[in-house]
Amino acid sequence: MTDFDFEDFETLVSDLETRFQQDKESVGGYKIQDCIACHDSLFTTGSKHCYACTYCTNCTNCTQCTHSHNCVSVTTSSYCRNSKYCSGCSYVTDCVHCHDCVFCLACFGLVKKEFHILNKPYKKDVYFKIVEKLEKKLKRKLR
Predict the structure, then answer these.
(1) Strand pairing of 90-93 and 120-121?
(2) Which residues contact 72 (CB under 8 A, 6 or more apart)?
(3) Alpha carbon 49 to chain centroid distance?
(4) SS3 of 1, please?
(5) Which of 16, 36, 49, 101 is the most exposed place for a label (fewest CB within 10 A)?
(6) CA-CA distance, 71 to 14, in Å (whole number)?
(7) 3-state secondary structure of 47
């Protein structure tokens, strides 16, 4: 048998996790500012533990995202805002657990949908009119 420490396995895992959490160095990126442990990212600011992200701001645990802001655990997505646990999405805002969605706002758990607000479908032109009115009312950017 190999020289493996079976007795202290859980302690070793805990020690490794602690060292990982303390590693603040960002490696292999370009123009990364105020980031913690972001690797192979470009033009990314204020993010933590992201990989291969480009033009992202204030994201955490995101992978292969571009032009996304304030996202958590989002993967292979672009132009996302304030979204969590989404993958393969574009132009989603305030969405959670959405996958392969495009132009969705405040949606939860959708898969392969487009032009939805609060999980309800809209025609493309109606969607953009509603979003524009909401931006004025809420005084914040939603797209």
Answers:
(1) unpaired
(2) 59, 60, 61, 62, 83, 84, 85
(3) 11
(4) coil
(5) 16
(6) 27
(7) coil
What is the dihedral sign for C-alpha 123, 127, 128, 133? positive
Give 86-126 pLDDT, tens digit per residue.
Answer: 999 999 999 999 999 999 999 999 999 999 999 999 999 99
Contacts of 110 (CB under 8 A, 6+ apart): 95, 98, 99, 101, 104, 116, 119
Nearest 5 degrees, angle CA 103-CA 105-CA 110? 80
Task: Write out pLDDT tens, residues 42-89.
Answer: 999 999 999 999 999 999 999 999 999 999 999 999 999 999 999 999
